Predict the structure.
Amino acid sequence: MTVRRILSAKGRDVFTISPECKVSEAVRILFARRLGALVITDESGTVAGIVSERDIVRMIATQGPSSLDEPVSVCMSSNVVTTVESATIQSVMSEMTEGRFRHLPVLDHGKLAGIVSIGDVVKHRLAEMEDEQQALREYIATA
């Protein structure tokens, strides 16, 4: 199973903001949309960073609530790991586990094509395992 299959099931919508957007506005979007992360894009639509709920909580814990007035570029991760639609679920799961992050933007020819979360990956991997178990049961029943 590939990332393409996850995106076809969940959709390709990605909420993005600019690096100049205030952290407080990012918080409002995360809350309103029930998201765990936002992709930061520059004027050309290129991925410039990603900001997660954890990034914001970490910043508030270290710098105080006044940091909500700062631009999101202050707390975003700028070394964004991305993937492609042809990547396997196993490779994406491994990459997310090793890198200790929960959201992975998906690029298609350098352009943002979607985003997958660890929850998306686990959900689809479990479905894949259930399908494999059912196929084995059917095989054993007919043998």
